[in-house]
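Support request, please re-run this one:
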Amino acid sequence: MSSFNEPELCLMRQWNDARLLEGSMQSVREKYSAVFEKVLDEIQKKYQAFDSRQNLFPKGDGRAGVGKKTWPSKAGYYISGFWLGGLLLENLASETEHVPHSFAWINHPDGPMDLEEAQRKFDDAAFNKEGMQWYNTGWGKGIVGVWCPFRQSRQELFELLTKDEACGFVACMLAHFAPLVQFSKLMDDIHGTINKARQ
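Re-run finished. Output below.
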């Protein structure tokens, strides 16, 4: 009885070709990560108040975002702020994966905060706006915020990514980021208690 299952045996029989494919996949992931570095560069160029950023490509979970140092999260957690998510290549290639989306969140704040009240403020700010469908994050303890699915289909996003050096894709990401900026003052106000405590 073999120690390897049938898919593994098939892979082993095509090992040299598989190694070439593996190298190409890694190259694609690195180039995709570079696209999101450009997205973050463009966001911070346009919205200079955002002085922190995280890019979780290619090895992360398909998110990239910006925030402010005055919106501190606890050590070891992703930054609080405005993010683009659900964007792993696997997500663009399959309708069963997480839907691409934008979101504003406070993630395990590093200081005193009434998270239930913060969520109520997010809900009031988001759900009274027309033209976009916002949802409560509902992501568990220590996290509050809202998210909104992208309007484009995965196929449309894929086409934008693979043409014209991804310029259309970058522009699309900036367009999805722009509505998040409306929550900047709300984030400032909510984090006011933390920043006052630090003074």
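The chain has one domain: 32-198. The beta strands are 52-55, 64-67, 81-85, 101-107, 135-136, 143-149.
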